[in-house]
Amino acid sequence: MSITGVGLTKIGQHWDRSLRSLAVEAASRAMEDSGIEGVDAIFVGNMMSGLLNGQENLGSLLADYLGLAGIPSVKVEAACASGGAAAVQGFMAVKSGLFRRVLVVGVEKMTDMTDSEDVSAALATAADAEYEVFYGATFVSLNALIMRLYARRYGLSEEDFGYLPILMHSNASDTPHAQLRFKIDMERYLGSPMISDPLRLMDAAPVGDGAAAVVLEGSDSGVEVAGVGMATDQIALHSRGDLLRLPAVELAARRAMEMAGITQKEVDVFQIHDAFSVMGYLNMESIGLAEPGRAYILAESGEIARDGPVPVNPEGGLKARGHPVGATGIYQLAELYNQIVGRAGPSQVEGAKLGFAINVGGTGSNVAAVVLRGR
Amino acid sequence: MSITGVGLTKIGQHWDRSLRSLAVEAASRAMEDSGIEGVDAIFVGNMMSGLLNGQENLGSLLADYLGLAGIPSVKVEAACASGGAAAVQGFMAVKSGLFRRVLVVGVEKMTDMTDSEDVSAALATAADAEYEVFYGATFVSLNALIMRLYARRYGLSEEDFGYLPILMHSNASDTPHAQLRFKIDMERYLGSPMISDPLRLMDAAPVGDGAAAVVLEGSDSGVEVAGVGMATDQIALHSRGDLLRLPAVELAARRAMEMAGITQKEVDVFQIHDAFSVMGYLNMESIGLAEPGRAYILAESGEIARDGPVPVNPEGGLKARGHPVGATGIYQLAELYNQIVGRAGPSQVEGAKLGFAINVGGTGSNVAAVVLRGR
């Protein structure tokens, strides 16, 4: 199984674009990149189109607007892991023998709402509506709780959380399709407003619009999809044994790596889900890049920089490249594909051949992992 | 591939129940029916949980509340065909070899909103938000447009649309899990209020809550899933060549029947998607049960009654058994399973061995078809 083409849009606040226009751009580019004019089925990764755009039935919408009406096409939702989950559905669809070639499109149009409270409420549907959100929790505040415990248990300073966003902004500064193309320093990080104490604005991925797409087919060309894995965890934080472990990340990563027959030590370039600084750190620890509480050192030391021994999110990650929620998992695959075929531009990691992506939904409750390997 | 167990809840306005409680009831019953205590993955068919229940991430929620957190679990959305689409995903998942045994759960909790306009707005997300809903169309009014053209082109009287709901109410009257367990006559049909001229309240499926589940596994026991098929059509009515054809129903049905190696003439019992009377008629015509404009005769004559030559929706269909949107496609499979194993109770069709279900999303824009065969 291979990815034979990818397409993506610039991420940003596209007030002049619609969801369908972004999705069609990414999908058309992916098919053009793959040298094809049609596919046998479409899987759309999206989380919030009902709430934010008054539009469900994205499967029909995209098949229609791609001129492909007739083929099977559905939406897959797994909170912020919707993109990765859609990719796994596409993988199974081809593997099942029912389809030869499928398109996986991730899209999220977050700026159709003028009230930021609406976006916050939509994001909170990833958490437990009855036992978390009902009591006033937002998605940001749940991550702030985790961050507070993390800081206390491992003795991190305020600065320690800044190293990851500072590196991500640096990476994004020369990435053409990134949303936040500017560098920040520690002063700016520490000066950014608290949005849910101790979580600062600069700890959080921005609200943005974007779409990414990949063509999956049973083929010996392109980049091999060497492994996929998914996993779930308890949806609400209060049910978890330890707030500072992400068992679904551990499980999904292990499943994908076992299918690919690799270990994390062999990976040349990583995509982690840094929707919040603390989530980025927990991701790295859960996949074995650092001991618990020590991930910040990887960022501080530059070990995860583009030219470091363990490159992570060389294009700027969710934090600065951008995080159009349901599209993120597909952006990750498109970034890895571009790395492996050597066309990642300024963010290119020298000799990248084995890539790994982890896409995390909710506060770690729904996770998709993918291993891509160059041929 | 087989269905080895099914479970379903009574359909109704369950003001005292939550989405998770309904889904867990159906899923637990299906696993108990199958004699198992766990599965390898879950696929949740649901359309509107974000808008109606403030809850996405149903994959995690259900895995968690079934005590199965850890396994892959995602939500699949294809408007009113979400249930059928989830079943097809489950089919592919097992067929792919990634999973041995999966649970497919359909659920919709429509009565959490106290304002019926909210439900109407949520249902309208199946249509084109920018080119239909923006201009004031509702899901009911789009079906009313189709009904008006149907009546005019084929010369149907008002009574002619009443034959299907009258039969469906009769079928539901002794179905234990049906929502509307009462008979209606032509006088009551004609006396029911116009909700979007010429569409009457009694032409429309009711708003209700419910959940249904099936266990799918590679097995020689149980009921064989002999064929599946999906298809899309243009999402908006104004794009269609002919409003009175449902090409996605034709395509999906043909795909499922070809996979099963059968024709429609061999089918013992049908499940059609009669969300509105005219949709029921168009369904029957699209799968070849009647010539265009003549489906009403099947209902009037009793040919599609339980003891007729072509039994359709013997338990009462969407109209009277009920239509908890994302669950409907799974209810259809559970009804067929119960028919084939001979435990459909009062609605039992004598000697039913081959069943066919068609689950229609939007105004025919996203369709899933399934053929079940007894062993």
Walk me through the structure.
Two copies of one chain form a homodimer. Chain A has helices at residues 19-34, 49-53, 58-65, 82-95, 116-124, 139-154, 163-172, 186-191, 247-260, 277-286, 295-301, 317-321, 328-340, and strands spanning 2-8, 41-45, 73-77, 101-108, 194-196, 199-200, 210-217, 223-232, 269-271, 354-361, 366-373. With 375 residues, the first copy, chain A, is an alpha/beta fold. In chain A, the strands form two sheets. In chain A, strands 3-2-4-7-1-8-11-10-9 form a nine-stranded mixed β-sheet, sandwiched between helices. In chain A, strands 5-6 form a two-stranded antiparallel ribbon. In chain A, a hairpin with a 4-residue loop joins strand 10 and strand 11 (366-373). The termini of chain A are close together. Chains A and B meet through helix 2, helix 3, strand 3, helix 4 and helix 5 of A and helix 2, helix 3, strand 3, helix 4 and strand 8 of B.
Radius of gyration of chain A: 19 Å
Question: What's the mean pLDDT score of chain A?
Answer: 97
Query: Strand-and-helix sequence of chain A, N→C?
Result: EHEHHEHEHHHHEEEEHEHHHHEE
Gross geometry of chain A: globular
Provide the low-confidence segments of chain A as ranges.
none
> How does the helix and strand content of chain A classify structurally?
alpha/beta
How many alpha or pi helices of chain A? 13
Distance between the termini of chain A: 12 Å
Describe the main β-sheet of chain A briefly: 9 strands, mixed
The greatest inter-chain interface is formed by:
A-B, 66 and 66 residues
Assess the beta-strand content of chain A as a share of residues: 15-25%
